[in-house]
Amino acid sequence: MAGAGFRALCDEYVRKLGSSTTRTLADVNSLMTGSKGTDQEKKTCLDVALRKAVFKKVEGSDEEVKSYIDLSFQCTRSGCASATTPFFVLADVFDCLTLERCANVFCYVEEKSGQFVKEPTGNRNMILRLCNDLIRRCSKSINNLFCGRIQIILAKIFPITERSGLNLQSQFNLENVTEYSNTHDEDVTMETETKEISFMFYKTLWSMQDYFRNPNQISNDANWKKMEDTVNEICRIFENYKHEGSEQVSKDEAYFAKFLTSERLLTLQIMDSNFRRHILVQILTLFHYLTGDVKFRPNKLILSEPRKFWIRDTTNNIYSILSETPPDGPQFVKHIKSVLKYEEKWSKWKNEGCPSLSKPAEKTKQQQKGVRRTVRAMDLNSEKFDLGNPTLNELWNICPDNLAACQDSNRNFTPDTYKFFEECIEQLEPDSGVEKQYYLTNDTAFVWRSLRLLAQQSHPYFQHIQNTKNLTLTDNLQNIVTIIGKEYKKENGVMECN
């Protein structure tokens, strides 16, 4: 099919797919049957048309968009379209829609997640890129529910051992900077009975976020002292201003976001149970990192015994504060301890190189019996061995004495020293005309093989390397090759031409 004919066929497919008349797989089959060209040409045209028609389809309702996506998957399953086409269509659809409509159309991905698990790795990686693009578009405070749905789908589609989702080197998001005011607003009045909740405490409280962002900076003694004083002050204020209880919040009304850092909100935040739990759990997570077994933690971040003792006492104090914080304080503490316990197992698994979590299949009784029969069939005193396979039997019984077969001269594959270096010797001759950049001694593989050969057959040459250890390995090898060439000519009576 000529280029003009191919474009005309693609345009026809796009027009038909974009209209309301082509909605089912039968309509697509009818469209392809009535068009000219080979099956491969029709398939290629359909791949192109399915993606181009997206721009027309996204103008319809969300249900129409989901039906069109499903149609592209049906085309692939029937063999009309390529295996990757519906995933390109899916990505194009989300690129064309607003976040609000993406959240509605994403229901299709959630419904078909079971099918995506069985897809090849390449197609699942396209789903991964699609989801990551959506997460980057989302706001952490406004679209947090949609982000959670995306993360759940990724957890369903990819196994827990998927390395793209693992923070193997324990890196931190240093760009997550919490901004707060460093100057006191004179118009702000703290509505408290004492003066302890002041602007100084406001700065102390929010300065702790920098240590959560980058715990490795605590290795500095000054930063450690500052962090220790900050945690002690936070715990003291939370103990003195106990939360007296509040109305239960329903699950539908619960909303978790990044807390605002306005100085005007500090008094209200101190009396908010969610805010207290947010800060104290962050401190517990920091302590878990400092005391846990983390492979990529800096060596300079090793705690002394007094610091370990302070962390242990402070941890118990924080659990006591959380237990007294309603609602359901003791139950909340139980869940936090369980989460941190699982985090220890997770860190241990990553430290061990993320081994497979699936257990090896146990051998059946029939397989075990087969192994025992094979062992009984081998008579070590016999001149012939039966290995259970004719080809293996033939190879094993070529020579009655296996040790003699290994010592056979035909099995000596080590080349002669001069023959191995012959080309290199010719290159190093002054009148060879070979430029230095083309010397064999510049090839790292050749240098490695040369050293292996010299180690087996020419031990004295290593003494030469020891005496000229200031030279590079390449220069040393060139000197040795030159010496080998001169010795060979001397032994064989070859005269050198000056």
Written account of the structure:
Helix content is 60%, strand content 0%. The chain has 23 helices and no strands. Helix 1 crosses helix 3 and helix 12 packs parallel to helix 15.
Features:
about 500 residues; mainly alpha; extended
Summarize the structure.
The protein has 23 helices and no strands.
Write the layout of secondary structure elements.
Blueprint: H1 3-18, H2 25-33, H3 39-52, H4 54-57, H5 62-78, H6 85-96, H7 99-111, H8 113-116, H9 121-137, H10 144-157, H11 199-213, H12 221-240, H13 266-270, H14 273-291, H15 305-323, H16 329-351, H17 365-377, H18 390-396, H19 402-406, H20 417-428, H21 444-457, H22 460-467, H23 473-491
Helix pairs in contact: 1-3, 5-6, 5-7, 6-9, 7-10, 9-10, 11-12, 12-15, 14-15, 20-23
Radius of gyration: 37 Å
- Tally of separate helices: 23
SSE order, one letter for each helix or strand? HHHHHHHHHHHHHHHHHHHHHHH
On the 0-100 scale, what is the average pLDDT? 83
Cα shape: extended
Poorly predicted runs of 5 or more residues: 373-377
Q: What distance lies between the first and last C-alpha atoms, to the nearest angstrom?
A: 71 Å
Q: Give a count of the beta strands, DSSP E runs of length 2 or more.
A: 0
| Helical coverage, percent range | 55-70%
Quickly give the structural class. Answer: mainly alpha
Biggest sheet architecture: none
- Strand-residue proportion: under 5%
